[in-house]
Amino acid sequence: MASFLHVLGVIFDIFLLLVAPILVVVFGIAARKREALSFTLRGWLRFPVALLLTIACVFALGAVYLSVNPFVYQSTHRPLLIVSLASLAYLTLHIPITLIYIARPNDDHHTQIAFQVWGLWWLVLALPASWFISLIGIQYTRLIFVSVTLSLLAALFDKWYTARQGYIQLEQERLERHLGPPGPQTPILSEPPEPSPNELWKLSAVSGLYDIPFILLLGSQVALTVDLATDYFYGTMSSAYFRTTSAVILMMTPLAPFTHNFHRWMSGLFALLFIGSTILTFSAFPFTSNAPLRLHLTHSIDLLDGSTFSELSGPRGYFERQISNNEWMSLPRTRAALCGVPSKFHDAETSVAYDVCRWNGPTTRIWPYPPTHWVRKVETKHLGFTKGVLVVSGPAATHLSGLILDPGLTFEDRRLLNEDESDGTGQLQFPIDDGERGVPWERVFVVNWHSNNSATERGGFALVEWDETPEAGDIPDLHALMVGVPDWVRVSGPGARKQPLVEGYRRFDF
What is the pLDDT of residues 110-126, one digit of tens each? Predict the structure, then answer.
């Protein structure tokens, strides 16, 4: 049921995303139709052609963006990518509609609006964020829909000033085009006719169409920065995203109808917020700064039926990476699918919010299973392990021995980094502390075990991880370290499916 509602929500968001640009185009054309500019662009390019070229350009830019950031494509559902690119298309459509159908070349607002459009382009395309492109879909489609709705409401409040003045200006300009510039023999429209309610509504609606969306986009960018810095959840009523956006809307929306020089001070405000939020974004973004991350992963295997139970918790930004991928522990690619269960908070000491996600893997019938209830707690810096503790625990009447090997060397030149052996306590702890150098992402953990009851029951557990772009020679060396690993062990990382799996479960014999 939850997955059905999620799919339904994605479809609904896509529908809203398609409706919003159509409304913008309709009102833009309706407002300028009487100027004989409704279906021409600069006198030679048809508006529908410009529309298609704009959409094609945006999707081409999206394809380039995905090629530069392949992880976005790997870690995000296809519908969210479509919604994200369509959101960029909406922002792009705002350029010709605003500059051609709303702002005139001799308009005082032309420069300010052009600056705002440039800022939006930089904002959307230049932020180095896989989190941004994956979250822009669900949140921004609703944001765009709300912006269009509020634009229509703003028309009702703005009609007695902005629309009337705009109508009078258009009438004056039309008279000048027909009769020439004002002169001794040229009649001047001293008292233009009052606009009809229909004209008034159209003009005021267009006025709101480029006021309200900019406010919401500004507020959402600030909210994204606040949400990233505070590490709260997206998509909840208590998130910083929802609170900040709501506050910005409530504070700034009532000012629009009563401010004659709205665009002048809005451009300055946009520049300050844009520059400030960009600086904060770069300083708060964990993968571009030295801010540490913490990850908690607990994996249990039921020795009776072979079923698996896993719990993963950590900062939300970490879940967008490929953490693990094997046949009995498949990690979903997006936060929405990953966290389909209630979340809770961990690590109250530092007041850091963690997503907690549980899932049950399929049952398997390979025996014997090592008693691998293990927890890995690490702190990372620049995607490399810096320090932490690997804890491997099992029943109290179990002897465990383990090794931590450096996979950067060949099988023959392997270097023992750490080892530990429990004396019937059923728990191993491997302290990890490589200082500022950082433990390489390719760290290999190998744990051997045997039961007190039967010395013949031996098995092994290995977790092999490497960077997203390993060197060509790294994978064979890693595979050489896994000789004797049971066939239920899987190597995580790119190209893992291509690695042959070794059957059997004998003791590691290094």
Answer: 444 444 444 444 344 33
